[in-house]
Design a protein that fits this description.
By secondary structure, the chain is mainly α. It has one domain (53-202): Tetracycline Repressor, domain 2. The protein is 74% helix and 0% strand. The protein has helices at 6-25, 32-38, 43-47, 53-77, 83-98, 107-115, 121-146, 156-177, 182-197, 199-202. Helix 1 crosses helix 4, helix 4 crosses helix 5 and helix 5 packs antiparallel against helix 7 (121-146). The longest helix has 26 residues, at 121-146. The protein is elongated, with a radius of gyration of 20 Å. It starts with 5 loop residues before the first helix and ends with a helix.
């Protein structure tokens, strides 16, 4: 069913509405009845597009992954190799946490709590999406070493781990605490981290 067809448009509308609902109640909390009512569909009409709740959950997750890729990863990959690309990934993630188009926060972070001990296809896809994100940072950091923006011997995995830590701290302070200085502190933490890997620092 193509995106240009009536059925394709209805399917896309269901996914968008379900994504908004998932930001509030999680994927498991998605109510097919509420979705059908909001979109003026019958439950049977909704099930014509998704044969199971799990199929809908996976479609919602794929939509979130695609949106994240379009907003964060793809623009960063257009930046020059090396530290500029690492920075673009970092800043793109902060912008995503501030406003991802479906509400404040990060659906992936919310789903980590929801699916950390819930095995199945949704968890598997969530895990793979986060491994892919980690891999994008690792690759960018590896190129930064190759471009001599980071000192030889820098561990790209460690760079990715620490950047993810800054992301988590920013999310906590920005969303939960409402700390107006969170973005500035996250940027300062990034600059300090990058300075540790800089060849200029290693010469002192």
């Amino acid at each position: 069913m193509g995106p240009g067809t009536k059925g394709g448009s209805t399917r896309a509308a269901i996914i968008r509405m379900a994504l908004i609902q998932a930001m509030e109640v999680g994927l498991e909390g998605i109510s097919l009845g509420v979705l059908a009512s909001a979109l003026d569909l019958s439950k049977s009409g909704l099930f014509a597009h998704f044969k199971s709740k799990e199929a809908l959950q996976l479609a919602v997750l794929e939509e979130a992954i695609e949106t994240f890729t379009d907003k964060v990863v793809t623009p960063a990959l257009a930046k020059p190799r090396g530290e500029p690309r690492v920075r673009a990934l970092f800043e793109g993630k902060l912008a995503w946490l501030e406003n991802n188009g479906s509400g404040l926060g990060c659906i992936f972070a919310a789903l980590e709590q929801e699916y950390d001990d819930r095995p199945g296809p949704v968890r598997d896809r969530l895990v793979q999406s986060q491994l892919d994100w980690h891999g994008a940072i690792v690759k960018a950091a590896s190129l930064a070493v190759r471009e001599r923006h980071f000192v030889e011997g820098t561990d790209p995995e460690q760079v990715a781990f620490e950047l993810e830590g800054i992301d988590a701290a920013f999310r906590h302070r920005h969303k939960l605490i409402g700390d107006a200085s969170a973005r500035d502190r996250a940027t300062r933490a990034y600059d300090r981290l990058i300075a540790d890997f800089s060849p200029k620092r290693s010469k002192h």
